[in-house]
Structure formats: C-alpha cells, structure tokens
TrEMBL record:
Coiled-coil region(s): none
Taxonomic lineage from the root: Eukaryota, Viridiplantae, Streptophyta, Embryophyta, Tracheophyta
Keywords: Membrane, Signal, Transmembrane, Transmembrane helix
Name the UniProt record assigns to this protein: DUF8003 domain-containing protein
Transmembrane segments: 864-889, 1267-1292, 1298-1322, 1334-1357
Signal peptide from the UniProt entry: 1-23
Domain of life: Eukaryota
Domain DUF8003: 785-858
Organism: Brassica oleracea var. oleracea
Length: 1424
C-alpha cells in the first residue's frame, strides 16, 4: 500500500515540457536511429542453482556446449536449470524441452548461437537466453503460458473474493458485475496492475485469476517470463508466449506475463504474446519490451486482455508494449471491448516517452490526482481507444498533457476534473473529448493550448461542462456536420484563423444542461452595461467573472459556415469575420427569462411580452389586458440582454434574446461580411400551459436581444439576415416581445478624399416586435441605430449626402443634409457626388457632358461666341465681317478678270459676226477638229456615233455602211474599220466601277472622272483616224495615200460624235458629191442629254453651215441655232414632256416662219436605233418644196398636227431623191417627228440631279451680273463660316459626329468654297460657267452632309435628357442653349439653297448675254 502511495507522489512530481511535431502519423512504432546499444551482460547464474548441465550427460544431446551441442531427444525437467557454454546450442526439429512446473526456470547462457528448429518447443515458467545469435524456426515455440510463478511481493494482481475476476499485471483484470444498480462496470475490476517500474525490462510473473468458489481454485495461472539478450541477430519465425492461462467458465483468466527481447537485429514474422487468459472474467495483458536496433520485418506482438465469458463486452484490460529504441509505449486491446483500464502511473522524469499509442479498443486511465502525461512525440488514440483522466466520482483533480501531437481517430478522451493540454497539433476524426469539471468552481476551467493546428472532422466533439479555453497560434478548423466545441463558458483565442464548417457548432453555454456551480450567471437585473463588454481585457484568458459565455479573442480571420451560439457572444481583437450563406451567429432565446423588461401575467395565466428596444405587447384575456415589459437600455450604445416572459421557475417560460458584440471601442473589427444570419431574437412559447384548474395559460414572447457591432466596414449580402426580433406571444392572447437593439458603431469613418463606403447592405435588417393573437398584442419595434456621422455623411451607414445637398454638422439624420443653392448652378451643370460628401456650400458641380467646359458649361462654339460679347454682338460682327470680306473678294475678282474681254466677236468663215463667248454658238470645228470651207465641197456623208458615250453604253458604229458611202468604201474593209473604232471607244470595267463608286460617294468627282475618260477616248479616236488608220476602207487611192478621207469630231460635252466621209478627188464622177437638195430631209442630232451638266444643244460646224448656206443665209441659220439652243437650254431631263413644248412652240413661232422664206422647215424629232438602245433627240431639216410638190405623198405619209408632221420611217418622200433620206434614217435605225400627239409618249429618264431640279437647273438670265456675283461672294463666305461653326458645334458633341458630317459624303461639305472661288476667279464666261456648274454640283452634294449634321444634332439633343431651358430668357441676352442647336445647320442649309438659286442665275448670265434670244416677239428676235 505504501508503494502505491509512493507511485502517486512520484507521478505528480515528475514533469517535463514536451517537444511536439506537426504531422499525423499513426504508425505503431517510430525509430530515431540511436546508436547501437551495448548488449546486456550475460545472465548470472543463481548461486543456489546447480552447476551448468552437460550436453551429453544431462541434456542427452550430441556434441559439447563449448563447440556445438545438438539436442536430439525430448527432455523433461522438474526444476530450475542453468545451461552455459562457449559454443552453440541447437534444438533439433520436434524436440521438446519441458519443465511443466509453475515458476520453473530455464536459463541458457552461451557464447555461440542458439537455434530452435521446426516444431521444437521449450516449455517453462521462465526462459532466459543469452547468445550471439538466436533463431526460432517456423512452428517452434518458447511457451510460458500459465506457468508464471509468484508475483512480486506487494503486488495486487490476483483478485480476492469469489467473483471469478481476471488477474492483473500490465492491465487490470476484468470483473463481471452481477448487480449493476449500485456500481457501473467501470467502477470495479479484478487484479490490479503492477510492474510499472519494470516497463523497460519486465522481469516479473503474471498473476493468477480469481475463482468463483472458495473450495476450488478455478482461476487460470499467470503468464511466465521470457527474457532474451542476443548480441547479434534474432530470427523469429516461431512463437514466444507468456500468456495467462484460461480460467474457464468458473475462474478468471490469468494475466499475461513478461517478455523482453534485446538484439541488434530481428527478422521473421513470428509471434510474441503476453495476453491475458480467457475466463469467466478475462485476465489483463502482460508487459512486452523490445530493444531491437534494426527490424527487417515486424513480428506480431499481442498484449490484449483475455475474453470474459461472464460479460463478453468487458474483456481484460490491455497490457503494455514498450519499444526501448523509439521509447514508445503501445497499449492495444486487439479490438476487444472492455470497461477495464490500463493504468498509466508515474511517467519517467529522466527520460520521456517519445510516443504513446492507445488503439484497438484499449482503455487507458490516469487515476492519480494532479497527474501529468508527457511525451516527446505524439499521443495517438485510434480505433476505439480511450484515455481517461481521473475518476468519474471524484472529479476534483487537475491533469496535464504535454505532447507534440495528439491524434485521435474514432476514439475518446475523458477528463474528470480539469485539464491543461499543451500540444502543437490536435487532430480529431470521429472522436470525442469530454471534460467533466464535477461542478467544482475552483477546478472548473480547462485549457487546451494547441499552438499550430486544431482540426475536428466527421462529428468530432470537444465538450466541457465547465469553463474551457482553447488557445493556439495557428488554425482552428471544424470541418463539417457534427463537429462541435462547446462549454458552459468557451474562450477561443490567439489563433491565426478559425473556420467553422457547414454543420459545425461552437456553443457556450451548453444546451439543455442543469444549472450548477459552473453555469454562467447572466446579468439580467442590471440596468447598466458591464464595462467588460465595451472595454474587454486584452489577455484573452478564461475568467469566470466576465459576462461572456462565448468569446473569440485575438484571432485574425474568422469564417463561419456553421453555427455559433451563446448567451453573450463576443468577438474581440479580430480582424475579419465572414459569415457564409450557411453560417449563423445566434443568441436566439439565450437571454434572460426574467430581466429588467420582463413580461407580466394576468391571474388567468395570460402573459405580456418582454420589453427591451420597445415596450412588450400587451397580454389580453376576456377583454382584460396587462401591459408588456418596459423598454430599457441605451439605443446609442446598447449592451443588454433581452427579457423573457417572466415566471423564471417555470420550465415553459421563454427567454429573451442574447447579446452579440463584435469588436470593441478600442479595437473595432476591420471587416464583417455577412451572407448568412446574425440573430438575437426573443423566444416564442413552445406550447400552451395547463394549470391545475385546467385553465389555459399563454405566456408572452421574449424580447429581442442586442447586436452591437464595432466595425470599420460592413457587407451584408442579399440573402443575409441581421435581426433582433421579439418572440411571438401565445395564441391564447399572449403579447409579442418587443424588438431588440442593433447598433453600428463605426470606427474611423473616412472623410474627404479618402472616403469609401463603409457599408454595402443588400440583405435584411429586422428589429420588429413579435406577433400576438391580434394587432393589439404586437410588441413594439426595437431600435436600429448607428454612430453619428461626420460632416458630409448621413444615415445609418454614413453614406454621402444626396447629390445637390451638403451637411456641415455631425449627425445621422437625413434632414441635416441641406439643399445646395440653385443660383450657383449653371444651367448645363449638375451637382456631382463628392467623395466623402459635401461639407459646405457652394456645392461642387460638373457640366452635363464633356462637350461643355467649366466653369460656365459652354461649348467650344459658345466660348467663342461669348468671347466676342454674346450671340447678338457676335452675329453683328460676323455679318459685318462677311460683308467686308465679300467686298474685298469682289474687288479682287474684278481686278483679276478685268483683262478678259467679256463681250467679244469674231468673224465667221461666212463673214457673219458671231459672239464666241456664248457656248451654245460654238461649232464643232472649235472643239477639237477644225475644217476648211473647201472641205464641204468634197463632203459625202456624216455618220453619227451610236450611244451617249457612257460607261454602260459607249460610242459605237454600225457595221453596215450607209447607202450614201457604199460607192466610196470597201464594205469588208469598212467592217474591219468599225471593229477597230468600236474597240477603241469601249471602256474597261474598272472605269465604270470607279464611276459607280464615285457616284455614290462624291458625285462631282464622278462627273469629272467621266469627262476625263470621255476626253481620253475621243483623243484616242481622233489620233487613230488621223494618223494610225491607213484608210484602207476608202476606194480613193488619193485618200488612202494622204489620210484625208475620214474626219472624226465631237460636241464639247463629248456625248455626241460623228464621222465625216470626204471624196479623195480621184473618183472622176460628176454625180458625187450629191447636191444639197438630195440630202434632205437632213437629221441634225442634239448634243447633251438634257441634264444640268450637259443640256441639249445643236452644234453647227462649218461643213453643216456651208451645206445649208446653199438654201439659208448663214446669218439666218446662226441666229436660228442661237435661239434654238437658248430654248433647248431650258429643257430638263425628267421633264421632257413639259419642257419640249416650249421648244416646239418656239420653232413654230420664231424658227419656221423665217426659214420658210428660204424654202426650209425644221421639226423636232426623236431618233432610236432599237428599243433597247438610248434615245437621241434632234431636228429634221426639210424643204418646203417637197411638201407642196407632192400632196398625194403627204396625205399618204403625213398626218397634219398643229405643230408638226409624223414621219413614216419606211417611206420618206420629201425630196426629189428620197433615197438619201431613207437610207439616212435607216442608218439611224429609225426616226420620229415629235408633235403634240407623240409628245406625251416620250420616255422620261431621270438621274440624281433630276430629282433636285427644283434647286439646280438652267434658267433664263436675270441680268445684274455684278450684283449677283457680289451676293454669291457673300453667301460663299457665309457658307464657309457656317460650315466651320457647324463643325465646331458638332465637335462639342463628339468627334464621331464631326467624322460623320465630314465623310457622309466624303469631304463634300469642304469643297463648295474652293470650287466657288475657282468659278468666280475664272477667265472668260465659258470657263467660268463650266466651273460654276461644278461648284453648283459640290454645293448641292454638300446638302447631304448638312442633313447628316442636322440628324446628329437632333439625335443628341432630343435623344438625351441633357437639354434644359433657361427660365426668364431675355431677348437681348440670347444664350446658345440646346433648344437652338438647329440654328447653324439650318442656316447652312438655307445658305446652300440660296446659293443654288443664285448660281443658276449666275450661270445664265454668263451663258446668255443676248437677252433677246428669249424674246416672245419674233420680229424683235430676228432684228437683234
């Protein structure tokens, strides 16, 4: 007994700090490669023993023990024997050495090798071996089972009584309880443990089991003792046994014995066993110690307790396995369930264990008071292993556990008392740790110090019914569902990060526990706030005097995906808290059942709701009501628990909400991110109560608690909930609890330029009261407050004051944000949000668009306008400037063209005076091909080219020669000549493609391109006919030799060309050329196409004039052509039916009356070779003599009309020789005189300019040439100015609008000005008129750009809400407001329309200088 007490004292005194490691290693044994141990000295013979046995005489062997002794026969021994020698000892196969006497000792001490061959056996109570090497073959055995001698004196391994308990040694023997009402299975045991001091080298016997009878000892014997000390190798393929013997069903099993194996190397897969024996109650396991430096393979080692037949669930306790090299202790019960402990007594102080393994249902206890369990490495509990500290009925001790790691897998640690655990790594998998403080306040605090890592996984639990502090410096991770840390008061501190996984729980206090000395006392009756809530201590120690029930202190990052629940929850000295969507921090129903604002009850049992942030709802029954609980606390800094329904003694009363404090005044939380819920709601009644008189009771709901947040930033996601809601009252009339209090105490609110939003709240925040049976029973809402905001900020979350307001005082009310003075805001400006809010007036603003410039929000154009005094003054200055520039422009123009003679006349070849300044009087010989008068005498015939010389229908000739030239040409050669001409006149495809693209993009350039290609084609035709062609188609040798028989010419517009044939002079025929009267009727085709750029005109060259001069005087003919061209000039393409009427009328009233005096008449005619070819117009010249001379023919071939005659193309009989006329028309493939009847059938062909003929067309001259030029100059300069102002206005909108206005159509808006200047400064009317027409094209084309500019302005100003109208607008102070955006593009459009009309007059003044050409009086016309 004294020795047992001594063990307790030593175990308490011997302590040391552990050195921990950071990995989970469940390998049973760990080696550290210590130096090779020196072998123990050979066993000394007992002085009482006899001398050593001889090989031959005593052992009946062969050989000598000094060389080799081979045992060849069985040997039965009856006592202790000592075998020694310097040689080898071999036990041959099948040989048995037997000493079947308990405690019988067999000692072998040899210098050589020992071998136990196959199926050989050594049986004794004790076997000791000292040899160089040892080999135990397969099937061999050293068996000391049940042959143990007497245990050491003072040991209590053999049980007393007749309970049939098992013997104890390394582990306690089991004891089967027959009466479980008074005691629990864990409270009783059989034989006790002993031999703890022999753990490293066990040398004692096991104990015998108890019996169930006083008369007969049925108990099984204890295991023997085996000790082997081998210098070299041990080959273990057999068995080494020291098991306890079985006690059967009437006796307890014996405990296992002792086995010690020491060698340098061990090989083999044998068996080492010191297990307890089976019996009515199983015996405890023995003790095994191995001192092996190198293991090539791992033998199976068993130390489990024996099975219990009387109580199968309670086997004997496991023994111990100690590895001397790794200094590891293993306790393994081989998966045998037990309630019996293996005791850990006094831990060594001079040399600590490295590892402690408790596995396979082993149950280990540290029974000594104030004990310490300390190892250098890890403590591993696995597969049902259990480690208990203290005694369940005497939980009054403190225990210490020191290790590098504590690794638990499906295991349990129980502490009865208090625990101080210091480890680096604590990993739990499907495991439990229970700390039972026993209700002792003094010892009710346990501390778990895990410096690196604490992980709970798969429903692992740490639970304490007292105070629990968990400290660390690394990570605390509760992985998932069921993982729980809970205590009556729980403190988690010093971790770098805490993560509560989905389904995991942190709880303090415990749920559904009875009150006791360790239950936290809530401050329910205090109206003032505990100072520790606002100014908590910074040491983070567990202190029962503090109001917290769950505190997380000095943790950097906290992530909550599971549940954190407590009465008073506090997060202190944390950096960030993140509550995921599955996470909850709650104090629901964890407040007071009574409290300052407790509810009240009617005599009927109906109660009112608890009050807190507001007044509780009234409780009503049969029109009798009682007031709810009173409101209490400070809304600006709340820290009160919610109040309950009252009647605290009743188990059915409800409690108010708890309190959650995050941060503190000195140490606010950096960031709170809420995606889940934070709630401190009041509790609602669970059911209706029944009193003894069967009257229904209905308590009210508890009030909401408090959520106090000391924060720097807050983020509440959309699905998140932050609430402190009152509980609902009972349906019998109970009142609802009032809402609680939520307060945001912002810390270091940034202001000014460093401001950022401190809160992003999208979720729901509730402080409403609980519901009652009716609206009269609803509890009042609680309070939702925030810290007073600095200047410029307002509201609960200190947001910036609304745009257009400022705040220069401290406070949170929105009414403190005053409106900014409207007089300081420009009309195109809007107030802007300033970072940190506006703290003083005037309020900052910005222009509504980037196109406006601060500070007055003017556009670039308006800045220019207001630079010159405003719109009125700017407009006046602009008009004056334009007039001055126009005058300078006109003077410069007049001086530039002063040397040009405007009215000049030249003498024609016939002596007539003709004004060559008139383009319509130009003849073809002035274009590119001149003719002498003498050439008309040899002129045979003129062939007009077919087609208008366009890219789609170029010039071409028919291959069939006219009858008029068949006698002077070779038809085959003529066809070849036509092929060459047509090939030259044809255009390439790319020329037409370019024309089409330019027509779409820039029509004036398309016209210029077409004219340049026409000019090039005509030049090629002229060069070909003049010099390249050999005239081989002509019959005349002289013509072929001199290249003089063919001449090609064209009109100035290059749309009509003809080919003249001349005689060579060597034909020697008097009938050639034919006289002029044989050439009638003579068709003369108009040049041009009736468009603005190429109006119809009749070209009269010298050859034609010479021919007609035989009938008509040249002056008459020229005057007729001039008048006709003046009328044709007014003909418009697309309006031929109306405009040709005036031409026909003029011919009948002015032309034909004068020509009839010379026997000639002209008619307007249409010529078309085929229905698919283009139609050409001209006149038909015929003699009146033919009409009078052949009345019969006229009746047959003519139909008289008021203004003309219809010609039958198949029979033209107007001359004495009609063949010429018929062939001529057939050459043109048909011709038709146009009269009133056929006029309406003319085909109207329109082009782009035809659609704009109301703007751009040929008109009659108006005179006042200089004035028109001056006005055009003014408009041209105005056009330039308005164009620049319009572009500047568009630039104020966007660069894209400028780009669109410039390039739709490309740059057309820029070219009118240079084109107009070029036209005005051109020499001569003819050139000036041509360039003026090009200027007119550019001007009309630029209208598209103006329309684009207008559309851009309209889209911008009417498509946005930027425009504002100025109130009280004064007429003398016009502002360029958005409502007047159309002025510049509209003025530019109007300017271009005016220019187009003035240009029409200017062109007419240039081209028509003889105004009598348009005289209605024919006599005045012919007299001019």
């Amino acid at each position: 007994m004294m020795r047992f007490v001594f063990f307790f004292i030593v175990l308490y005194v011997l302590t040391a700090y552990p050195k921990l490691i950071a990995s989970w290693d469940e390998s049973p044994i760990r080696f550290y490669n210590p130096p090779t141990p020196s072998p123990a000295p050979s066993p000394e013979p007992n002085p009482d023993d006899e001398s050593s046995l001889s090989c031959a005489d005593d052992l009946h062997g062969v050989g000598s023990l000094d060389t080799t002794c081979k045992l060849v026969a069985d040997l039965n021994l009856t006592g202790d024997h000592y075998i020694s020698g310097k040689g080898n000892l071999d036990v041959l196969p099948g040989v048995r050495l037997v000493c079947n006497v308990p405690g019988c000792s067999l000692t072998v001490n040899i210098s050589g090798n020992f071998s136990l061959a196959e199926n050989s056996t050594v049986i004794a109570g004790s076997f000791r071996l000292a040899a160089e090497n040892a080999d135990f073959a397969v099937g061999s055995a050293v068996d000391t089972t049940g042959l143990g001698g007497e245990p050491p004196s003072g040991a209590s391994g053999t049980p007393e009584g007749v309970d049939g308990a098992g013997g104890g040694y390394g582990g306690r023997g089991a004891c089967c309880l027959s009466d479980t009402t008074a005691k629990l299975p864990g409270d009783v045991w059989g034989g006790d443990v002993y031999g703890w001091s022999y753990l490293e080298k066990p040398e004692v016997y096991g104990s015998r089991g108890g019996s169930t009878s006083n008369e007969v000892d049925y108990g099984g014997g204890g295991g023997g003792m085996v000790g082997m000390e081998v210098l070299g190798r041990v080959g273990l393929n057999g068995s080494v046994l020291a098991d306890g013997d079985s006690g059967g069903v009437k006796g307890g099993g014996g405990s296992g014995g002792s086995i010690f194996v020491m060698a340098h190397k061990m090989e083999g897969n044998g068996r080492i066993s010191a297990s307890g024996g089976d019996g009515y109650a199983g015996g405890g396991g023995g003790r095994v110690s191995v001192h092996i430096y190198s293991r090539q393979s791992q033998p199976k080692i068993f130390i489990h307790g024996g099975s219990s037949f009387g109580c199968q669930e309670n086997a004997g306790a496991s023994g111990t396995l100690y590895d001397v090299v790794s200094e590891s202790l293993t306790i393994d019960n081989e998966n045998k369930t037990t309630f019996t402990d293996t005791l850990l007594l006094e831990f060594p102080y001079h040399r600590l264990f490295t590892n402690l393994y408790i596995q396979n249902m082993a149950k280990v206890a540290v029974p000594l008071r104030w004990s310490r369990v300390q190892v250098q490495g890890s403590i591993s509990l696995s597969n049902g292993g259990e480690l208990n500290f203290g005694l369940a009925r005497y939980a009054s001790s403190e225990f210490e556990l020191f290790a590098e790691e504590v690794l638990m897998s499906n295991s349990v640690i129980k502490v009865f008392g208090a625990l101080r655990m210091t480890v680096k790594v604590f990993l739990m998998l499907k495991s439990r740790m229970f700390i039972d403080g026993g209700g002792v306040t003094m010892l009710g605090t346990s501390m778990l110090d895990i410096s690196n890592l604490l992980v709970l996984k798969e429903s692992s639990v740490i639970q304490s019914n007292g105070n629990l502090g968990v400290h660390g410096q690394g990570l605390l991770h509760l992985r998932g569902a069921g993982d729980t840390i809970e205590a009556q008061r729980l403190i988690l501190s010093l971790f770098y990060s805490i993560k509560v996984g989905a389904g995991a729980v942190l709880r303090g206090p415990l749920q559904n526990t009875s009150t006791g000395g360790l239950t936290p006392k809530l401050y329910c009756q205090r109206e003032d706030c505990p100072v520790e809530l606002l100014h908590p201590p910074e040491d983070c120690n567990v202190n029962a005097s503090l109001p917290f029930t769950l505190q997380i202190c000095r943790v950097e990052d906290i992530t909550v995906e599971g549940l954190i629940k407590g009465s008073v929850i506090h997060f202190h000295l944390a950096r960030t808290v993140v509550v995921r969507s599955s996470g909850t921090i709650t104090g629901d129903g964890m407040g007071c059942k009574g409290g300052v604002g407790t509810g009240r009850f009617l005599r009927s049992g109906i109660g009112s709701g608890g009050g807190h942030g507001g007044k509780g709802g009234s409780g009503c029954y049969n029109h009798t009501c009682i007031e709810g609980g009173d409101s209490y606390g400070n809304a600006d800094l709340p820290c009160e628990l919610g109040s309950g329904s009252g009647d605290e003694e009743s188990s059915d009363s409800v409690a108010g909400g708890g309190i959650i404090v995050i941060g503190s005044l000195e140490h606010p939380l950096s960031s709170l991110s809420l995606e889940g819920t934070i709630t401190t709601d009041g509790e609602s009644p669970r059911k209706t109560l029944k009193t003894i008189s069967n009257t229904s009771l209905g308590p009210g709901g508890g009030s909401g608690g408090t959520v106090l947040l000391f924060l720097r930033s807050l983020d509440i996601a959309k699905p998140a909930i932050l609430s402190s809601i009152g509980g609902n009252g009972s349906l019998k009339g109970g009142g609802g609890g009032s809402g609680g209090r939520i307060h945001f105490h912002w810390s270091d609110i940034p202001t000014g330029d460093v401001y950022h939003h401190i809160a992003n709240v999208k979720g729901r925040v509730y402080v409403r009261g609980g519901l009652g049976a009716s609206e009269d029973n609803v509890g009042e809402a609680g309070t939702l407050t925030g810290k007073a905001c600095p200047e410029g900020l307002y509201g609960l979350y200190c947001e910036e004051c609304p745009v257009g307001t400022y705040k220069n005082v401290t406070g949170s009310d929105k009414a403190l944000c005053s409106l900014c003075p409207a007089r300081d805001l420009p009309h195109r400006a809007v107030y802007i949000t300033v970072r940190g809010g506006v703290a003083e007036a005037p309020c900052p603003y910005q222009c509504v668009s980037d196109r406006y410039h601060m500070p007055h929000c003017y556009t670039t154009l308006e800045e220019l306008i207001y630079t010159f005094g405003g719109p009125w003054l700017f407009g006046i200055l602009l008009v004056v400037l334009l007039l001055l520039l126009a005058l300078v422009f006109s003077v410069a123009r007049m001086k530039f063209i002063s040397g040009e003679e405007v009215h000049g006349a030249t003498t024609t070849h016939h002596g007539s005076q003709i004004d060559h300044s008139f383009p319509f009087l130009e003849s073809l010989n002035e274009v590119m091909e001149t003719s002498r008068v003498e050439e008309s005498q040899g002129h045979m015939h003129r062939i007009y080219f077919l087609g208008p010389n366009t890219f789609s229908e170029p010039w071409h000739l028919s291959h069939t020669p006219p009858d008029e030239i068949k006698e002077i040409v070779y038809e085959a050669a003529f066809n070849g000549f036509v092929d060459e001409i047509n090939a030259i006149a044809a255009y390439q495809w790319w020329e037409g493609a370019i024309y089409i693209m330019l027509s779409v993009l820039v029509y004036p350039l398309a016209w210029s391109w077409q004219q340049s290609r026409r000019r090039l084609k005509f030049q090629k035709l002229r060069d070909f006919v003049r010099s390249e062609y050999d005239h081989s188609c002509l019959r005349s040798c002289r013509s072929r030799a001199l290249y003089e028989g063919l001449k090609v010419a064209a009109t100035p517009d290059l749309m009509l060309a003809h080919l003249d044939f001349f005689l060579g002079g060597d034909e020697k025929r008097n009938d050639l050329p034919p006289p002029v009267h044989e050439r009638f009727p003579m068709p003369l085709v108009f040049g041009g196409d009736g468009s603005y750029m190429a109006y119809y005109s009749l070209q009269s060259d010298d050859i034609l004039t010479s021919l007609l001069s035989q009938l008509v005087p040249p002056t008459t003919w020229y005057r007729f052509v001039a008048g006709l061209n003046a009328q044709l000039r007014l003909v418009q393409q697309g309006k031929l039916r109306s405009t040709f009427r005036s031409v026909m009328r003029w011919i009948e009233t002015h032309g034909n009356p004068a020509l009839k005096r010379n026997g000639v008449r002209v008619d307007l005619a249409r010529f078309q070779t085929s229905p698919s070819s283009s139609c050409q117009y001209g006149i038909l010249v015929q003699t009146i003599v033919d009409e009078v001379a052949s009345p019969r023919d006229v009746n047959e071939t003519e139909q008289q009309h008021p203004w003309g005659v219809q010609i039958d193309n198949s029979s033209l009989h107007f001359t004495q020789s009609p063949t010429s006329s018929i062939n001529h028309f057939r050459h043109r493939d048909g011709g038709e005189i146009i009269d009133i009847g056929s006029l309406q059938f003319l085909k109207e062909e329109k082009d782009v300019l035809s659609l704009l003929s109301f703007l751009i067309h040929n008109t009659k001259p108006v005179g006042h040439q200089d004035l028109v030029g001056l006005v055009i100059s003014v408009l041209l300069l105005g056009d330039l100015t308005l164009m620049l102002l319009t572009l500047l206005q568009l630039y104020s909108i966007s660069v894209l609008d400028v780009f669109l206005a410039l390039f739709i159509l490309p740059l057309s808006i820029l070219f009118p000005f240079p084109a107009g200047v070029s036209a005005l400064f051109s020499h001569g009317p003819r050139r000036s008129a041509g360039r003026t027409r090009v200027y007119a094209l550019w001007n009309i084309t630029s209208l598209v750009n103006v329309v684009v500019a207008f559309v851009c302005g309209y889209i911008h100003y009417h498509g946005s809400s930027a425009g504002k109208k100025i109130p009280y607008l004064q007429p003398w102070n016009i502002s360029m407001d958005e409502n007047e955006w159309w002025i510049f593009p509209g003025a530019l459009f109007l300017c271009k329309v005016l220019q187009s009309q003035l240009v029409n007059w200017h062109v007419a003044n240039l081209e028509i200088q003889d105004y009598s050409l348009y005289s209605d009086d024919s006599e005045l016309f012919w007299q001019s």
